[in-house]
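User: For documentation purposes, I need each entry recorded in a consistent format: the amino acid sequence on its own, followed directly by the corresponding structure tokens. There are two entries in this batch. Please keep commentary to a minimum and don't merge the entries.

Assistant: Recorded as requested. Entry 1:
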Amino acid sequence: MTGDTDICIYAQDDLEDETIEQIARLKRQWWHYPLDEQIKYLKNLPSEDQHIVCLNRHRVAAYLRLTPRSAKINNIIFKIAGLSTVCSDKAQQKKGFGRRIVREASRLIEREHFDFGLVQCDDGFVDFYLKCGWHRSKCDFYVVNDAGRRQAIFREKNVLMYPLKDFRGKEIEIVGDSF
């Protein structure tokens, strides 16, 4: 890795327009959103969200969003961090940029005293997260909507947790929107 690579953590309110546009363009490599809608979406995320960016030669090479949430397990509230939109520039894959942002997210989870972090992913990405020090979870996760109804968001299969907590057999309710 050269000195041309930096990891930056941005608070939502500190994202500059140029960075937002680069993130939106990077996300389009993976998800087919209209660019203008994605820029608008990124500008209007909750103020507590944080963005971890790997810059390679001052260009966004990898990105993820860390979303603080609460989770309820057996009526105990936990402070959690959800990872979302984890992606890297397809032209720069296998250079360690994605691994660097996930490891930075792990450090941020510890530094900011989150009880744990969660990420949900497709089958093809599980090994990537395991190599980054994350662990498979054995729980069912739900979001409680505004009407108080529970909606399953992910069930066991590809939910990874950092650091690993033993909640086997427990149901975890995410308070607020999914991440």
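Entry 2:
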Amino acid sequence: MVEFILGMFVGLWLWPWWGLGIFGILFIADSILCDKDNAFFGTILMVLGMGLLVWLAGDHNPFALIWNNLAHILGFLILYFVMGAAWSMIKWRFFLASLVREAKQDFKRWDHKHVADFVRPDESYAKNNAGRIMGWIGHWPMSIVGTFLGDIMLRGLVNLCEWIYESLSKAYEGMGNQAFAGLEHEAEEARRSKLEAEAALADVQAMDEERQLDHAFGKDRQ
């Protein structure tokens, strides 16, 4: 069976460039579909796509190839699904960790009342993710690639960007303060002038009111 598996991979790399390109597109599409809990459509896409590629790019009849190597293929499928089961356990742990991170972020934003009302999300139960987990089992090579690119590399890139931002946040704020220092000074002077003008106007109005009162009392005395 080992020779059969090695022969499959060697035969794959002997395909023409367009065959390898189509295989890569199928692989990426299936990774996305598996991650979006649509493994059924991904399975149909891969089975039909690989059958056509074996026929057109590999120059083999896919049905004859399966029939002539039935025992090897059955052994390969057993090994394939055992590895898929192992990967599904690892992927499920990654999935739960992502849900816990989201819940912790919510806890930071919530007050004590909302935290007390917290309920474990429905998608954290395996029974509510049967399709997703079966997709991980049946499409584990694509799931591994999707996890590495989407979960590990992307999260690492996000964490790196957050660390750089936090390290340079004071420098960013200093540049912003420096850039607007002149305008803020002019605005402060304008506010001070406005307050002084309003105070002067209030004094003038108060003096006018006093004169009017004095004038009115003067008339009453007369």
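Summary note for entry 2:
The CA atoms of residues 58 and 126 lie 40 Å apart.
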